[in-house]
Every structure is written in C-alpha cells, then in structure tokens.
Write a structure and sequence with these properties.
mainly beta; Neuraminidase
C-alpha cells in the first residue's frame, strides 16, 4: 500500500492507492472530508419594522432571550437613535432611545453587545453621516436598562472617528473602527483598526492615532474603489478574533498569546466571486461564519476550512417579500439566521438604488 501527498493549492490530496480512498486535508484541520457546497436560499421576511427604525443595523441577544436591534436612523434623524426588541413571538416593539451626544443632539447606535452583567455596550457612530459636528465624536457607550428605561449611561470611550462593531470577550470590549483618516499609510490606502477596552473603563479619550494604547491591531484596505475598513467582528470558540475588512471583501483572523498580546493578523478568507464586501459577521454553533455582503445584497458563509460560499442574493427591491435589501448584520437566533436590512447606501458599486418602505429584517436557514 502506497500513500501519496499531492499539493493542490490550499489543500493536500492524500491518496491511499491500495484502498482507492481519497481525502482532503485543509489548512491544519486534521482529517476532514471535503463537504458539499451549501445550497443557495431565497431569503424570507422576518419582520416589518415601525417608523422608529428606518435603518436597522447591529443586533444582540438580550439576557431574557429577546432579540435587540440597533436603529441609528441615518435616513431620518428626526427619529431618535433607538433600540427595538423582538420577542420569541416575533412581535416588535420599541425598547429605549439611546442617550444623545449633547454637541450634536444625536445618537447613532450601530454595533451592540451585552456584557456579562447584562449592561449593553453600544457603538455610537457619530461620524457615519460625515457631518462636521459629528467628526471624531464617536462614543463607546455602556447602558444599564431596567424596566424599559435607561437608568445609567457610562461613556467608555469618546472622540472616536468611526466606531462600528463590538464584541465582549474575556473581560474586555473589542471595537472596530472603520476609518482612521489621521494615519497616513505609505500605500496611500485607508487604515482602520481594532481597539480593546476593559469592561469597567470610562472616559477614555481616543486620539485616532497609532499611539492609542487601546489600539491592538490595524488593517489596510487595498481596494481603491471602496475605502472602508474594519467592520464586522466575532470570536470563535478558541478565542481567535475575526474582523471583516469591508472594502476588500476579506475576513482577517487575529490571534493572541496567553497574555492577550496580538501574535498574528492575516487574511483568513477571501473570494470576491462569492463575497464582495464584509459588513456584520456572526458565528453559528458549528463554527460557520455568516457575513452580510452589504454592497451585493447578499449573505455569504465561511466554513471552518476558510471556504467562502454565497448562500443568498437579492436584486434591488423594497424588501417587502423578504429580499436582502442591503444586509447589515446576521445573527443566529432561535435556530434561524436573522439579517437586518440597512437599505440606504447607493452608488455604482451597490445593488441598492434607494431607501424605501417597508423597513425590514430578513431570515435565512443555517447551513447543514
């Protein structure tokens, strides 16, 4: 019996000739048989949202099991930036308004995540609209909410240019900042980064430079046609951090040593035919990473072997039939993949052409 190891790009074909058996080993995964590609799906309507939430974005699962959705309301800022709740009966109701920044009179909640004590951490992305009053005024907030009221607000960090996604892990808060325009990379391309703050931090002043002690790693977005960087963020069960580099359509994998120091930051998954942009990201229980492909009106999944598969795509629409009207973030909730539809940004690289009613959330099935 003879065994041959035949390199095939990212994989090695192992052929045991006497048995006629073949298996694939992908990058350090041990023995794993090549799996069938996930089937394409047609997204379905999960919820129609009230006028209080014209641009749904980040999501988190509350301690009581309800789904919480952040509504920055960039399309209609006469509507306060708020949080809505969806119960297990799929009924939608407004939960609370997010405390405004006095200088702008606005709150712009995007990424959200509950901490271990039930407090909610919020990326208040004041700079997203590019209005002068909001520039470098982004905040990381910590809200304590009881009986449907905000009873305390802590400003964890302030002065951020573009805080976007947040995850809590190991007693720390990890936050993506999608733009760091004060830092000029020699390549001329956009720099973005990931910050880390203690759970109990308050009033940290972010300088948006490489000298920030809370900045743990940076990304460069190479795509000159879409200069928008670190966005979606998620941890796997082993404690590795994954960050979407939006404009490059890539997922970076960031590793740490036992002391929490970053030991690596590399592109883990990219396939522009299957995934063009990387907005919100979220793992399922099997280690599959779901990605909102914002510009393409699509959702992709990256399997644990770093292979990218598009699993749903929609044409431009109003989303009334459950189409993916510019997906912002996916999350696994009650056995389904729930996807917010931002439905706002337009341009030559976007499938979406306008913002219109109804305001919606779509649903897909997890891959098998």
């Amino acid at each position: 019996m003879h065994t041959y190891h035949i390199p095939l790009g990212r994989q090695t074909l192992i052929a045991t000739v006497a048995l006629g058996s073949f298996a694939f080993l992908a990058d350090g995964l041990g023995s794993a048989m090549s799996a069938a590609e996930p089937a394409m799906q047609t997204s379905r309507l999960f919820a129609t949202l009230p006028d209080a939430c014209p641009t749904p974005d980040g999501m988190a699962i509350a301690p009581d099991g309800d789904l919480v959705v952040a509504c920055p309301n960039f399309k209609d800022q006469s509507q306060p930036g708020c949080l809505i709740k969806i119960g297990k009966d799929n009924k939608v109701h407004k939960w609370v308004n997010v405390p405004v920044l006095p200088e702008t009179g606005l709150a712009c909640p995007m990424g959200i995540e509950f901490g271990p004590d039930g407090d909610l951490y919020i990326c208040d992305n004041q700079g997203w609209t590019d209005k002068p009053k909001g520039k470098f005024k982004g905040r990381m907030l910590r809200l304590r909410i009881k009986d449907n009221e905000v009873v305390s607000t802590t400003v964890v960090a302030q002065g951020m240019e573009h805080p976007n996604g947040v995850r809590v892990h190991g007693g720390q808060i990890y936050v993506t900042q999608s733009m760091m325009s004060n830092v000029k990379d020699p390549s001329g391309r956009l720099l973005s980064g990931v910050y880390r703050f203690p759970l109990d931090a308050h009033d940290i002043k972010v300088t948006n430079t490489l000298a920030d002690p809370n900045l743990i790693t940076t990304l460069i977005t190479r795509n000159a046609e879409c200069q928008y960087g670190a966005d979606g963020i998620a941890f796997d069960k082993a404690g590795n951090l994954y960050v979407g580099n939006f404009g490059d359509g890539a997922i970076h994998k960031i590793t740490f040593d036992a002391d929490g120091k970053v030991t690596g930051n590399h592109v883990w998954a990219v396939d522009l035919k299957e995934m063009r942009t990387t907005d919100g990201i979220s793992f399922d229980d099997k280690g599959n990473l779901y990605v909102a492909d914002f510009s393409e009106n699509a959702v992709a999944v990256v399997t644990p072997d770093a292979k990218v598969h598009r699993i749903a795509k929609s044409p431009d629409s109003d989303g009334s039939k459950g189409e993916l009207a510019q997906p912002g973030e996916p999350i696994l909730w009650n056995g389904k993949i729930i996807v917010t539809c931002f439905d706002l940004v337009t341009g030559p690289d976007k499938v979406n052409t306008k913002h219109d009613k109804p305001y919606t959330i779509a649903v897909l099935d997890p891959i098998k």
